[in-house]
Amino acid sequence: MKIIIAKDYEEMSKEAALLIAEEIRSKPNSVLGLATGSTPIGCYQELVRMYKEKGLDFSAVTSFNLDEYFGLPADHEQSYAYFMQKNLFTQINIDIKNTHIPNGVTKNVEEECQKYDSLIEEKGGIDLQLLGVGVNGHIGFNEPDEELKIGTHLVDLTENTIKANSRFFHSIEEVPKKAITMGLGPIMKAKKILLLASGKNKAEIIAKIVNGKCSTKVPASILQVHPQLTIIVDEEIGQHLKVNNVLDNCLL
Ligand code: GLP
User: Fold this and answer.
1) For residue 178, what is the DSSP state?
2) Ligand 1 mean position, distance from CA 127 (Å)
3) What does the alpha-carbon distance between residue 136 and residue 148 come to, in Å, rounded to a whole number?
C-alpha cells in the first residue's frame, strides 16, 4: 500500500489525475474503473484540463463505472450516468460507446449484472480502478454486511448511505433505496487501485482501512491485500493515520 498525504483536496485531485494520466499515456487503450460521489470531481476537472491543455488522449480508453442507482434513468439529474456525462465524458474525447455504467432501469437485473461482468472480462479486466469511499466503508455500493459479493449485483442501500447521499437530492424520500453495483471481484482484480478521500468526516474510516482489521463490516478494508493500492488523502485525514505505519510509504 502506498499512501500519499496531499495538502488539501485540490492537491489530492491533481495527484490522482497525474496517476490516471500516466496510466493512459503508458497504455492508451486502458480500461478505467470510474467512481462517482463528490470526491473524484476535482480529479475529473483536472483530467479535463489535461485533455484541453496537454492533449491527454482518451480516444482509445474504455471505462466501467462502479455503480448506478436502481430506478433512476440515465437522464435523471442524480443518476450516475448523468454525473459522468456532466463531469467528464462530454468534456473529453472518450468514445461514448466505450463508456459503461450499469443500467438503473433495466427490466432484467440478473441479466444486466451478468452482462456487465462479462463485458469487463471481455475487455481484459480493469487496469486502473478509481475509488472513493463511503463513511461506512462502502466501495461502489458494496455495503457493510456479513458477506461481500464478487459479481455485479442489486443491493439494498443502508440507512446510513441513504442519509449520507440525501444531500444530493431535494429530500431523503427521493433517494433510491437500491443500487446496482460492481462487486468486489472486478475491483480487486484491477491491476491498480487508486482510493481518494478528503475531509475530517472520512478520517475515521480511512484509519480503519489503513490500520484496522480486514472485515466485511468495512468493505474497503479488503483493499489492504491489493498489491497495487495507492491511497491519496488530504492532511485532515493523514494526521489521524498511524504515522509509523505510513511513513515508509508516504510520498508527500
Ligand atoms: C456513493 C458512491 C461511492 C462513493 C461514495 C462517497 O455512495 N456509490 O462510490 O465513493 O458515494 O461519496 P463522496 O465522495 O461524495 O463522499
Assistant:
1) E
2) 21
3) 14
